[in-house]
Design goal:
heterodimer; B: mainly alpha; MetI-like fold; 11 helices; 75% helix
Chain lengths: 231, 244
């Protein structure tokens, strides 16, 4: 259908890197999200305040600006701080780490909202019953609350993943050869920008469709023990 | 931190602010105009209306905005002779036009989905009441369904405006001088990376929370009749109140 002039493999390599960045960021975002959600729910006023500032910033600043801030701003900031203390530092952040770091920073905040809501959705009686059986706080969380939370969190996490995988396109701005960047390089050298960006769009679309399918499977699996209203 | 540099460049940031606001407002207004028919198509009982709208929404929501911007701005370069022939090249050559076009098409899909949900969520009884009063279809839609749906959609729609405001930052990649574009130029020219991007971030923070503040105020007025009783001002002892 499309004549990719031998750049097909480069595009596929880019797509692989996109999925890799997406998965790495998603795993990190889930961990950050859980920790932040626990901080929101059980933290002291100081911790809750700090977490509040974090989510406020993430919700109010565009991803691109945060990405540029992390990739270009943080190394120079550290160098300047080092210079102020009389140290000569040379720091360059690897684009992969900057990308995963920024996306984790942003989507960790989104995931934390999902986890907080799903924690609140688990009924209190479950916790009380577990306490009555003599489980300690940690065991209650690990064995009773967490498995039920995941069921409530699944739709929200799926949503975070769909937005996150699209956000990885921004990393092309800091020269990481993921899907968008490979398409850009191929488009420039072959002078067929429409073809290559359209192919990139179709690959993103395919990733989204596969994710939607997996999500519905996962939700069906997570709800297997729950009686639903059959029509 | 070099504060003099930030203060010196405030006028540049303000001109960037104008570009950001222009793009946000124009794309939201145009996108909304497209979203209403799109939502109606999605809700149509006829397949031939429904599937093009569904495909469009899926494409826009399943691909990154950056890819869409590149597809329109750089992609149009592949069809220069054809575009010249129909006289559209003068538009597609301009990054401003391409940015506005992409942002409009993008927000139309998201807004269309919000409206679709809201229209589907209008209580059945209200529509039945309008029918019982003998309102014809069009009038019913204009007077009952749409205003009610707009009230229902408002909280989600204001979030969409905020996302759109942040999404305009991507136009800096195709050389437009919005807030982010200005920051990028200052950053690379003066090697003032964190000063420039922190200032840009501050601008966006103020904008986003300003919009949200106004939106919540409007929401309180718009949905005043849905608020719980005790939240309403107490009835005074004089005047022609409706209180019992």
């Amino acid at each position: 259908m499309f004549d990719l002039q031998g750049y097909g493999w480069m595009i596929l390599d880019g797509a692989r890197l996109t999925v890799l960045v997406g998965l790495a960021s998603m795993v990190c975002a889930i961990v950050v999200g859980l920790v932040v959600a626990l901080a929101k729910l059980f933290g002291t006023w100081f911790v809750r305040g700090a977490v509040e500032v974090y989510t406020t910033i993430v919700r109010g600043v565009p991803e691109l600006v945060l990405l540029l801030l992390v990739y270009y701003g943080v190394p120079t900031l550290i160098q300047d701080l080092g210079a102020a203390m009389g140290l000569e530092l040379k720091i360059a952040i690897n684009p992969f780490l900057a990308g995963v770091g920024t996306i984790t920073f942003i989507y960790g905040a989104f995931a934390s909202e999902v986890f907080r809501a799903s924690y609140l959705a688990v009924s209190k009686g479950q916790v009380e019953a577990a306490r009555a059986l003599g489980f300690n706080g940690f065991l209650v969380f690990r064995l009773v609350v967490l498995p039920q939370m995941l069921r409530y969190a699944l739709p929200g996490l799926g949503n975070v993943w769909m937005v996150l995988i699209k956000a990885t396109a921004l990393i092309s701005v800091i020269q990481l050869p993921e899907l968008m960047r490979s398409a850009d390089v191929a488009a420039r050298t072959t002078r067929m920008p429409f073809t290559f960006f359209f192919v990139a769009c179709l690959i993103y679309l395919a990733i989204t469709l596969v994710s939607m399918w997996l999500q519905s499977r996962a939700e069906a699996w997570a709800n297997r023990g729950v009686e639903g209203a059959r029509l | 931190m070099n504060f003099d540099l930030i203060v010196e460049n405030i006028p540049r940031f303000l001109s960037g602010l104008v570009v950001t606001l222009e793009l946000t407002v124009a794309s939201c207004v145009l996108g909304f105009a497209l979203a209403v028919p799109l939502a109606l198509m999605r809700l149509s009982p006829h397949r031939r209306w429904r599937w093009p709208a569904t495909a469009y929404v899926l494409f826009v929501r399943g691909t990154p905005l950056l890819a869409q911007i590149f597809l329109i701005y750089y992609g149009s370069g592949q069809f220069v002779p054809a575009l010249k022939a129909v006289g559209l090249w003068t538009f597609f050559r301009e990054p401003w036009f391409c940015a506005l076009l992409t942002l409009t098409l993008n927000t139309a899909a998201y807004t269309g989905e919000i409206l679709r949900g809201a229209i589907a969520g209008v209580p059945k009884g209200e529509i039945e009441a309008a029918r019982a009063c003998g309102m014809p279809r069009r009038l019913r839609f204009r007077r009952i369904v749409l205003p009610r749906a707009l009230g229902l959609a408002w909280p989600a729609y204001t979030n969409e405006i905020v996302y759109q405001l942040q999404a305009t930052s991507l136009v800096s990649i195709i050389t437009l001088m919005d807030i982010t574009g200005v920051a990028r130029v200052i950053a690379s020219r003066d090697f003032a990376f964190y000063e420039a991007f922190l200032t840009a971030a501050a601008f966006y923070l103020v904008l986003v929370y300003g919009v949200l503040f106004v939106a919540r105020r409007v929401e309180r007025r718009l949905l005043a009749h849905l608020r719980p009783r005790e939240a309403q001002p107490t009835q005074r002892g004089f005047g022609f109140g409706f209180g019992r």
